[in-house]
Amino acid sequence: MTPKPAVYVLDPYHEAAITTLKCTDWIDLVLWDDPCKGDWHKHAVGVLVRSDTRLTADDFAAASKLRVVVKQGVGVDNIDLAAAKAAGVAVHNTPALNSESVAEFSLALALSLSRRVTESDRRLRRGEKVVRSTTLGLSLFRKTVGVVGMGNIGRVAARKWIGACECRVLAYDPVAPRDVWDRDQIPHTRVDSLDELLEQANIVTLHVPLLDSTKGMIGGRELALMKDRSILINASRGGIVDEKALLEELRKGRIWGAVLDAVEVEPPTLEACRDFLELDNVIITPHIGASTIENQRNSGMAAVRTLLAVLEGKDDVPGKIV
Fold it and tell me: Which stretches make up the D-isomer specific 2-hydroxyacid dehydrogenase catalytic domain (predicted)?
């Protein structure tokens, strides 16, 4: 009798996704809280992960039975793709599903900063008096938003900025086709350089993956190009923004501030982020842009369906990276 393929879920998944796996009688399932989880290298044929687990070259070398890894979400920088390819392991993600929730959260963060929502809340909790005449916010109505990265999240973000604030949209992406947003009839101006976008935008929102080409793409020089009272949003990946340079710029008070749902040390700690957290013109959240009840269910289910389809030998399974 052919043994059932072992599927290991190394990180917590939504209960609906786990129920689907438990009802699949042709796999052997091991969950993240099972003491046997540590033996996954010996037995796993399929693995489900999120951002918390890193899969290195050593992991792939030790996992001789492994056929497929599925990552819930878009970013796969926690997986050594070259090692996976060399080991003959397929890697899939769940593209496009996070777009609505991340774009929504980016807008929420920017408005919270511009209208000084979190600052006022913190001051009230400390027992301070908040004087309205000296706690003026910054309106984002009909301002210019620069969207860096014209993929799924950037596209949805542009629509939300237009719909919520009637913003003028500038877009920059060095690799996207010239007509990528024309098909969706999104009013925008495509710029040819990041510098051009930074010089014109009141809000700069980053929606690019962490690659060698994007690491540190917003540094001291780029921050200096940004307009006075502008806002920087990073809800993509830590490492895209030079945090030391950003801290220096925030302390000057020239730009309005920054909102960061992605930082270099994740999850963010008080020790690692102390200098930022002392400033009122910054908001840091622990990479929760995709963390809605609805999205976690949908993306978890998509990851499970993808893994089962690969194990069943189906062709053209979505989200294949390698």
Answer: 8-315
